Amino acid sequence: MKYPKLIPTLLVSALVAAGNAQAATAYISNEKDDTLSVLDLDSWTVTDTIDVGERPRGIALSKDGSKLYICASDSDTVQVMDLATRKIVANLPSGADPEQFSLHPDNRKLYISNEDDALVTVVDTQTHEVVAQIEVGVEPEGMAVSPDGRWAVNTSETTNMLHWIDTQTHELVDNTLVDQRPRHVEFRKDGKLLWASAEIGGTVSVVDVESRQIIKKLNFEIKGIHPDKIQPVGIKLTDDGKYAFVALGPANHVAVVDAKTYEVLDYLLVGRRVWHMEFTPDRKHLLTTNGISGDVSVIDVDDLKVIRSIKVGRYPWGVVTTP
Amino acid sequence: MLKQTTIGLVLATLLPSALADANEPLDIRVAYVGQIIDRGPVLSNLIPEPEDAGLQGARLAIADSNSTGRFLKHQYRLDEIEGEDTATLVAESQALYDDGARLFVLNTAADTLAALSQALPPDALLINSGSRDDSLRSEQCLPGMLHTLPSRAMLADALAQWLIMRRWNRWMLISGSTDDDLAFAESIKRAAKRFGGKVVAEKAWSFDTDLRRTAQKELPPFTSGTEYDVLVVADERGDFGEYLPYNTGLPRPVVGTQGLMPVGWHKMIEAWGAAQLHSRFEKQSGRWMNEKDYASWAAVRTFAEAVTRTGSTDVATLRAFVLSDRFELAAFKGRKLNFRHWSGQLRQPVALVHPRALVSSSPQEGFLHPVTDLDTLGFDAPESRCRVVEQ
């Protein structure tokens, strides 16, 4: 698509809204506004706000980046948005109260945690059919599929376990007990390690995928902040295996961890009640959603500095980026 | 794991890696004892308290614990006793004990707790989820008893901290005539002393007019005569306090048992997953979850958390774990909860709500404590004679 000549700025934003942007873009779900904020990653400005279903939380891109999946928790559905038109093109039968999900490397099977029903629902994104439902612990939350596609791991917040689901059979084959209120799981790129945060326990467990045993438990400590307020939620690992970033919720900081030695290197001050994070497509920046302050902080990954914050909607929750 | 190869995949699905050594199938019995208390006639009787307050919370906690237990081969069940009469409740509880029950959740009045504490042998683990009585946490100290319901002192301190933070230091205190009302008023006066509030006037409610018709006439003069910042009401059963907001002599907020209320739990608490707890509870019970439900829920969850982490039903093991530094209860209040080693009280934030919104949560920032700010609420170790854990 070429830009037409002689266009006023209004038209530019209309073009951006039509999905013809050249710049990298972030989509942020605003839990209490029932909207997505569209953030232009060159200008660092919000260029559009899109109405979606009720209480949008987890969001994920299809592998080709053409579709956005949105957990509309209170609408009891996963919405599918065509990013070219920014229109909802389908509602998937997600089961009740979908919160987070993860797309299998096959780009078809979507593993969805149903927070109110203690279930993981597997939906085929092509046929829109429910492939399986697996009983897990109370308040399933975090979801991750291993890079090789073998495992789907779900966390249950009140049962305090990681549930290991075999993606071939859709059977629950193992459970790993972790600390209180596990929120998020993130596989290392090679699939050998899994990082799991425990919000109320205040810890991050590093789990060996082969044995499904905890090999390291990380603790965090920030001067002047009560230990009870240090509540790990989102985790992101750099592709080069150098850093892990851990969002610490109401401590309003993101911990930078040496992903090899597990040493905490620094704590970066971001907005209030930081939830989830995503790298920009060039991997140079990390975006954080800050629930209470309603903004997104931008971390420079090389300098390990927070370089700006951008106001979005109320209670921003999930974030994805696309080139 | 040996069992995986010998017994096969079906069993393997039930074996959590972290607990491979503590993997015996367990049956866990929890006894729930609920006392139905006749609170007498009240002027404001439009919204009655649910009769199963407490019981529904215990039931939900059993369901929650069984969801977890499925993966550990732990099966929980609840024995339910309900009644009005103390002697009957005691006899039925003893029968349950004789039948093997050791874990008791007691949603009863303070004197019934004392009777149960005396009647049940010391290897029963008792959690009070029904009485706010301060003496149980400071003077009376029933041996080994834990408490999940916040005490009146905790509620009053939570309210007082917020009032001081707002600089609303001058309080007019109006109390009803029941023992509970007077006890709440005492807690308010204690809180005033602790945090620097001043009770500038104290009045006892003694009118017997029907306020549904005459509140507008009677209450403004009754609440006039002294300058005050807030009106604090002590009316636990809701006899007259509901009529105080907007009928005060001065244009002042009403706080206490009505108006802005300190509570252990409320529908308006929604953060940290509370929305999910409410939604499970409402699906089960068809009504909102109140603080009695929450206290019984937390009591059952305390037992279950100890069973999950120790893989044992031995009472001594469970008690030691619950009172150790390793015990953490995730209970939808934004931080992990544990028990005070002196009074056996569950440390917890206290919410300040009005019927349609959460206003704040105490402890308030700036109220400091050498160990944990949660201990700024209620009876701290030096103020209590109780010693649940021997020093």
Q: Helix fraction of chain A?
A: under 10%
Percentage of residues in strands of chain A: over 45%
* Residue windows where pLDDT falls under 50 for at least 5 positions of chain B: 1-21
Class by helix and strand content of chain B? alpha/beta
Tally of helical segments of chain A: 1
Which stretches of chain A are poorly predicted, pLDDT < 50 over at least 5 residues?
1-21
Task: Please outline the major beta sheet of chain A.
Answer: 4 strands, antiparallel
CATH class of the largest domain in chain B: Alpha Beta
List the domain count of chain B as a whole number: 2
Distance between the termini of chain A: 15 Å
The CATH topology of the largest domain in chain B is Rossmann fold
Measured by residues with Cβ under 8 Å of the partner chain's Cβ, the largest interface is: A-B, 39 and 28 residues
Radius of gyration of chain A: 19 Å
Q: Summarize the helix and strand pattern of chain B as letters.
A: HHEHEHEHEHEHEHEHEEEHHHEEEE
List keywords for this structure.
heterodimer; A: 323 residues; mainly beta; 4-stranded antiparallel beta sheet; 1 helix; 28 strands; 3% helix; 53% strand; disordered N terminus; B: 391 residues; alpha/beta; Rossmann fold; 2 domains; 5-stranded parallel beta sheet
List the helices and strands and how they pair.
The complex is a heterodimer of chains A (323) and B (391).
Chain A: H1 9-17, E1 25-30, E2 35-40, E3 45-51, E4 56-61, E5 67-72, E6 77-82, E7 87-92, E8 98-103, E9 109-114, E10 119-124, E11 129-135, E12 140-145, E13 151-156, E14 161-166, E15 171-177, E16 182-187, E17 193-198, E18 203-208, E19 213-219, E20 235-237, E21 243-247, E22 253-258, E23 264-269, E24 274-279, E25 285-290, E26 295-300, E27 305-311, E28 316-322
Antiparallel strand pairs in A: 1-2, 1-28, 2-3, 4-5, 5-6, 6-7, 8-9, 9-10, 10-11, 12-13, 13-14, 14-15, 16-17, 17-18, 18-19, 20-21, 21-22, 22-23, 24-25, 25-26, 26-27
Chain B: H1 2-7, H2 9-12, E1 26-35, H3 55-69, E2 74-83, H4 86-98, E3 103-107, H5 110-119, E4 125-128, H6 135-138, E5 146-147, H7 152-165, E6 170-175, H8 179-195, E7 198-204, H9 211-222, E8 230-234, E9 254-256, E10 261-263, H10 274-285, H11 291-310, H12 315-322, E11 329-330, E12 336-337, E13 350-354, E14 357-362
Parallel strand pairs in B: 1-2, 1-3, 3-4, 4-5, 6-7, 6-8, 8-9
Antiparallel strand pairs in B: 10-13, 11-12, 13-14
Helix pairs in contact in B: 3-11, 4-5, 7-8, 11-12
